[in-house]
Every structure is written in C-alpha cells, then in structure tokens.
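Notebook entry, structure prediction.
Reason for the run: the old model in the group folder had no record of what sequence produced it. Starting over properly, with the input documented here first.
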Amino acid sequence: MIHLVIGGARSGKSVHAETLAGELSQSPGKQSTGKKLIYLATATIYDDEMQQRIDLHKQRRDQDWSLVEEPLQLASCLQTLSGTNAVVLIDCMTLWLSNWICSENFAEFESQRQAFITALTTFEGDCVIVSNEVGSGIVPMGELSRSFVDHAGWLNQAIAQVSDKATLVVAGLPLALKGG
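New structure, fully documented this time:
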C-alpha cells in the first residue's frame, strides 16, 4: 500500500505520516504485526537550522524506528527495502528534489523520478510518502524557484497517481484526497 501525505510547511504532515506508519506496523488490537518501521530520510544538512529540523524529527521517533539516509538514489533504496516486511516512511520528496536541483547532475532527475515511480509500483510492503504542496501560492519570480515548483508539482502528481491513498494535511488536520 502506497500512501502520499502532502501539505504545506509546518502543516503537520510528517507527524501524521509517522502516526500512519506506526498504525500500519500494528494490528487493530495495537499489537505488533512484526513489520519493521524504516524512516527513509532525504534531507541533507547544509546549516545549523536544518540540523535543528532533523533533530526535531529524530526526537519524535522512538527506538522502534530504523533510519536510512538517502539524499539522491531513492529508487534503488526502495527496491532494496521492498519485500522486507517493513513500513517505509519517506520524508520528504521536495527535499529529494532540492538535492537533485542543487546537484551537478540535475539532468538525471527525470530518469531518477521515473525510476522512483516504477519502484513504487512494484514495491512489496507499505510505504508512506511525505511531500510539500508548493503550488498553492504565488508564482515565484526567479527561474530556479519556478523550476522547483514545476518539478515538485509534476512529482507530486506522479506519486498521487500510483498511490492507493493520498491525504492533504492542513493545520494538523488530515483530509482524505484518495482512497478514503
């Protein structure tokens, strides 16, 4: 099962996604199903503020979570995790896009995006994906910013299309968009 959780900055989407992943690792009676919880982080630390954000995320997770850090090669990482009886939470797709935009190899992004979508469609297990909704504001003035918004929108659409469920989180409140 693939579940996209999307929302604006500080909307509560990561907390909601972590809760969903935790629920997927348990039976309805709140007993463990034996599924591992894997947090697949795409963030890279460029400054103290980003380190503080990452620390905040880490503090919320308990010892049940394993951490995998992968800033660029999500498709191959997801293929490796497929079939491992795990609930994988990917946080976050727009940071992944930022990593590619800031890399020297952005020309490879489209093939990496397609490889990731293919890996999602063949993934054996549960995957919760966090992404930012960045297209609801004004059109940015700079070319780089407009490119980011465009690519984030196309990426989110592609993930939503192959997802079983999609949830928009606004002010900490989830709204089902797909799959009830």
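Summary: The two ends are 13 Å apart (CA to CA).
The old model has been moved to the deprecated folder.
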